[in-house]
Design a protein that fits this description.
With 88 residues, the chain is mainly α. It is built from four helices and no strands. Helix content is 78%, strand content 0%. The chain is elongated, with a radius of gyration of 13 Å.
């Protein structure tokens, strides 16, 4: 059975780590692609993607519209890239 993003978010918030693995598998290339596109460095983009998923896991219960997960991940990734550029 294929779950929607909202269903997966709900499962993760209820402690289902397999559901989080599904979300990572589904969005890891997109998150990495956004980071690489903004930063142009393979290794830094990988680090940013990892940080995005750590933050996602911590903040997922606060997501008010789970059906908008993809756009939220894009925003989190963009903010992480900006933070990296400011620190550099």
């Amino acid at each position: 059975m294929i779950c929607t993003d909202a269903e997966l978010v709900n499962k993760v918030c209820n402690g289902d780590m397999d559901a989080f693995s599904v979300l990572i598998s589904k969005y890891s290339n997109a998150v990495y692609g956004v980071a690489y596109g903004k930063l142009g460095d393979f290794h830094i983009a990988q680090d940013i993607a990892q940080e995005v998923f750590v933050k996602t896991y911590r903040k997922l219960p606060n997501l008010k519209e789970p059906e908008k997960l993809a756009s939220w991940l894009y925003a989190v990734t963009t903010r992480e890239c900006i933070k990296h550029l400011i620190r550099s």
